[in-house]
Write a structure and sequence with these properties.
The chain is α/β, with parallel strands linked by helices and 365 residues long. The chain is built from 11 helices and 15 strands. The model has no long low-confidence stretch (mean pLDDT 94).
């Protein structure tokens, strides 16, 4: 069976490519694998049949690049949802629009069975909860594209930590990535949530007020998203330090996880994953069982999108359980909002957030 997919928002992550990640000459000209369209293109039983974007030039560029016929290009997502019989819909618009577009797709007369939404799930916790509720009412799988969950090495590492207790009981974690919090730290925080499988109880944050994306885009409009970090304490008393203050050019995505029976160091930018087992009071370096080499942006990240699209296909087949649901994606969003609230109120914030804090909005590119 061939499933039909549509995309709302024909920007970089949808399939045009992103400056800083892809060569300028390729943006809008080549089929970028690390994208929603690229994921569908790599999946045998899903066909990208429609796209919607309010910008006619972007819509035309995307449609030409991905061979979407002119009659299936829409300048409103409502028109696309009404006209097309879609099994899956990708939401690739800016985070502050995710709520409207996911809820509209879930509320359509003939809704898709799967909505594949870009990260972060939303820019406001209340909106994220409304998105989850809207999908639950129509029995729709809401898959949030925290792409690291769709890489085989990270899935194997989670098995090692959760099922095989490779490090024993995790005690402390340090994580570092580039600014900004909503745009980028969501990757770090969701990865930690995925690996640790613990809830966060308390958050204390610091903001730098800097936004590299605004500078890179030469944007006139300002957003509230900025570099920052802080510490988190989980419900199992794991202390987590998060630093997302650095500019892209000098940052690396790193994790150091220390447990009662070992420790590991993961550097995704430099291709270095290392593991030490605690033996007779000394840390002795060993190979990570079942993991060949280190995670890389060139291979693992780009493979995440075809892997995610295949997961969408499996969900449509009824052959899988959603392993990146909105109910888990909301965790990283709550932590990020908590960091903002903590900085601005000079306080330690308890999670989960309740009103009025769940209505706090962070705008981002």
């Amino acid at each position: 069976m061939m499933y039909r997919a549509g995309i709302i928002g024909a920007g970089g992550i949808a399939g045009l490519g992103i400056l800083g990640m892809h060569d300028e000459d390729d943006v809008g000209e080549t089929k970028v694998r690390a994208s929603h369209a690229g994921g569908y293109d790599a999946t045998e039983d899903i066909e990208l049949v429609a796209v919607a974007d309010v910008d006619e030039e972007t819509l035309a560029t995307f449609g030409d690049a991905w061979d979407v016929p002119a009659e299936h290009r829409y300048t409103s997502h409502e028109a696309m949802l009404a006209a097309e019989d879609l099994d899956a819909v990708s939401v690739c618009t800016p985070s502050y629009l995710h709520h409207d577009h996911v809820v509209d797709a879930a509320s359509a007369a003939d809704p898709p069975s799967v909505i594949w939404c870009e990260k972060p799930i939303a820019s406001q916790v209340a909106n994220a909860r409304a998105m989850i509720d809207a999908c639950d009412r129509r029995e729709i799988d809401l898959v949030v594209n925290h792409s690291f969950r769709f890489t085989e090495k990270l899935q194997r590492l989670r098995t090692l930590l959760q099922d095989e207790a490779l490090l024993g009981e995790v005690q402390s974690v340090s994580a570092q990535f580039r600014q900004e919090l909503l745009r980028n730290a969501t990757h770090v925080l969701d990865t930690l949530s995925y690996l640790l499988d613990q809830d966060v109880d308390t958050v204390a944050g610091h903001l730098t007020g800097t936004n590299g994306a605004t500078t890179a885009l030469d944007a006139d409009e300002q957003v509230t998203d900025s570099g920052g970090g802080g510490f988190l304490v989980t419900d199992e008393d794991v202390y987590v330090n998060v630093d997302c203050t650095l500019e892209r050019e000098i940052s690396s995505m790193t994790f150091q996880i220390v447990g009662t029976e070992g420790k590991c160091y993961l550097n995704n930018d430099d291709g270095e994953w290392r593991y030490w087992r605690l033996e007779d009071g000394e840390h002795v370096e060993r190979e990570l069982p079942g993991i060949d080499g280190a995670w890389s942006w060139d291979e693992d990240y780009r493979s995440a999108f075809p892997n995610a699209a295949r997961h969408v296909s499996d969900l449509l087949d009824g052959a899988a359980t959603n392993h990146s649901p909105g109910t888990e994606a909301i965790t990283s969003l709550e932590v990020i909002i908590g960091l903002y609230v903590s900085h601005n109120t000079d306080s330690i914030v308890s999670l989960p957030l309740e009103r009025p804090l769940e209505d706090v909005t962070v705008t981002s590119w």
